[in-house]
Specification:
Blueprint lengths: L9 H8 L6 H9 L8 H8 L4 H6 L2 H5 L6 H21 L7 H8 L9 E7 L5 E9 L9 H10 L4 E7 L9 H17 L3 E7 L3 E4 L5 E3 L2
Parallel strand pairs: 3-4
Antiparallel strand pairs: 1-2, 1-3, 4-5, 5-6
Length: 220
């Protein structure tokens, strides 16, 4: 970016005018710091964002490491920044779960995943989120879930209740018979252990469905 006049460099513009004046690629370039031989940080940022933020969120650490100009340090900064953004969004919506809409900040990123994942929100007695874990990862159209592992972790976290979620990479969140059967098994196990399953959320592209009340919620 040294080829740019000082007043047009992203970092200098940010310090002079504030972050709001920068475009997406400029903000990302500030995070990346430096480019590589023949490629500025701004060029690299434009390459990473050529398909938008949503596509960037889908890329794994392994995929990012293969991008020319991204070494371990830059990948670490990028993943940390994306996670900070996700956590800020969660905090801005609060951490108490009162219904399916309150689950959205914790699961909306799942709509961009290319494989099925099973995520669990562990809650205390006041339905505040203690922690969230991706417990199982699967393939393009299925993920194997073992209730004993879900509740082993619930006991370890001293959780009073759980909410479970998984995604459909096909984009259609309509529950399958297998999804409903899994929900029944989890609810039965939760009843025995005294750790109720408050809801099972299925995430598709642009919306998610609550199996508890059949409510469909749009995702941003």
């Amino acid at each position: 970016m040294k080829a740019l006049p000082p007043d047009e460099r992203p970092r200098e513009r940010l310090l002079r005018h504030g972050p709001a004046v920068l475009g997406d690629a400029e903000l990302l370039a500030v995070l990346l710091g430096q480019g590589t031989f023949g490629q500025s940080a701004l060029d690299l940022a434009r390459t990473l964002l050529q398909d938008g933020w949503a596509a960037l969120l889908q890329r794994s650490r392994t995929e990012l490491m293969k991008v020319r100009g991204l070494g371990p340090a830059k990948v670490a900064v990028l993943l940390a920044a994306l996670e900070i953004g996700r956590r800020l969004r969660v905090d801005s919506h609060g951490r108490t779960i009162g219904g399916p809409h309150d689950v959205l900040p914790w699961v909306e990123d799942m709509q961009w995943l290319s494989q099925e994942e099973f995520r669990v929100l562990y809650l205390n007695t006041k339905h505040r989120v203690l922690t969230v874990e991706t417990v199982f990862r699967g393939g393009l159209d299925s993920v194997e879930v073992f209730p004993r592992e879900v509740f082993r972790r619930a006991v370890a976290h001293s959780a009073a209740a759980v909410i479970v979620a998984h995604n459909h990479p096909s984009g259609d969140p309509k529950p399958s018979p297998q999804d409903r059967a899994l929900t029944d098994r989890l609810e039965q196990a939760g009843t025995i252990l005294g750790i109720p399953v408050l809801d099972h959320i299925i995430v598709g592209h642009g919306r998610h469905i609550s199996l508890r009340n059949h409510q469909v919620t749009e995702l941003r």
